[in-house]
Specification:
It is built from ten helices and 18 strands. Strand 1 and strand 2 form a beta hairpin. Helix 1 crosses helix 3. It has two domains: 301 residues, Zn peptidases (Aminopeptidase); 109 residues, Alpha-Beta Plaits (2-Layer Sandwich). The model has no long low-confidence stretch (mean pLDDT 95). 45% of the residues are buried. With 417 residues, the chain is α+β, with helices and mostly antiparallel strands.
Amino acid sequence: MKQDLINRFVRYARIDTQSNPESTTIPSTQKQFDLSNLLVKELHEMGIANAYITDECYVYAHIVSNLTANHHNFGKVSAVGFVAHVDTAPDTTATGCNPQIIESYKGGNIKLGDTDIIITEAENIHLKDCIGHTLIHTDGTTLLGSDDKSGVASIMQFAKYCQENSDYLHGDIKICFTPDEEIGRGADKFDIKSFNCEYAYTIDGGLPMGELNKETFSADMAVIKLTGRDIHPGSAKDIMVNSMRALADIIVRLPRNMAPETTDGYEPFIHPHHAESTIQNSQLVLILRDFDTKGLDKQHEILRSIIAEVQPLNPNCKIEMTITKQYRNMFDKLMENPKGCDYLFEAAERAGVNPFWSPIRGGTDGSRLTEMGLPTPNIFTGGQNFHSKTEWLSIDVLLKTIETMKNLCAIWAEKAV
């Protein structure tokens, strides 16, 4: 299975599936179909004939229960779902991804191809846990796409295992591969009704091995638009209104102690994520994150206060802000029906990975799906440094992900009453 998994991941990683937040189409980029269509083809080749793809680039498949009337739990086992996303983040280029394989990591820093980029032990504290593992990283020119092609590869490998091992007993297993998760739209067209599961699991975590997630940030996005007036600088006195200056006034007032680079654990942040600016027009996109959903209201007020302070300094510049809801912490909803989380923890224990619950300083499709009524915690994959050229993946950890999935479906079958 290990070599098959390596080949599978590399095959998927080479396909550019980067999503685009500026697009209004679903999916946001047509190239996501390149991988999604391949997944349907491979599922059909495994013998899962019901696999199909929608016009919006969602791939669905159903591994039918192999329990018979001779089994005590026949007809009682709830369907379990597994979800991963095919797109990669817009933050770093994914064109021409060239995965590099270390067959047995010996320790030390890892230089990426002919670049000056280095994966350092100092910044990657989990490297020491992966000595002897097979690692995959980039050549330093693109991201790797482990987020979330590691999840896609593990689900596909698990599907193949189910098809090839008739003695592995399980109930109905549902699969969905989504587009556009990285731009917050992965659940927009997810068909929960036809998916028809009591519980689902996103395979979209990272390291360390055994990390499970039932808490995510609650998230909003703020967009601040500034409108000034342009004119030739030689005749600009008392006429030009430079929106860039007002933008700078706003950014410099954002709280430094509430930034991604100064916070961790359960601490919230306000993150200026993207800016475009000319004299006439400027725009600032901020992502707002807090594990306490009520904390987002405080962040809204911080931004309003900053705008109120900056406006008199730039009286002729029009400043407008809109705030959009993105996703919410899934913890409370999951605790209304914690059974699937308990089963997940036991499944990871059986895999021997010393599981533990950890909050995600981010979100998954599971955040939205849980809010929509489908409880969906998250499972580790073995990837690290997502969204960057220093991204890397331990295949040995990803094998433990698959083992956890196998145990999980077995437990759902065992405990059915």
